Amino acid sequence: MTHTDIxxxxxxxxxxxxxxxxxxxxxxxxxxxxxxxxxxxNKCAHFYVAIQNEKVVGYxxxxxxxxxxxxxxxxxxxxxxxxxxxxxxxxxxxxxxxxAIFLDVREHNLPAKxxxxxxxxxxxxxxxxxxxxxxENAVLMKKEFI
Length: 146
Hints:
Blueprint (H helix, E strand, L loop, with lengths): L6 E4 L5 H11 L6 H7 L5 E8 L2 E11 L2 E9 L8 H9 L6 E7 L3 H9 L3 E10 L4 E9 L2
Parallel strand pairs: 4-5
Antiparallel strand pairs: 1-2, 2-3, 3-4, 5-7, 6-7
């Protein structure tokens, strides 16, 4: 598989089941199909999916308010990691014409932190016991575009 095999599309109703599967495989507290479908009507939600061979292999969920973005989710199926898919998804979210974008990442998720730093994110601080299942601190990161 190569980086060019992946197509990035705007999240739509046809992707809900696949994204829910990604959630189940990637997060200790996954979002449900109902929660994901609610994002389709959320004007602040800017979600994108990565598709290979008509299958969702990853996605990014971004909320935009007042020219700032908050990345709520970045997920790639385990067997599709390390192929640049998360980077491609994040780069798509950077096209939103924002002043800054924020995200939280598990303190011990070193591959994700390295990716975010390579894309220009800086660590701002730590949120104690932010994550559950398992409990872990979050590192708050920010990327500025201005």
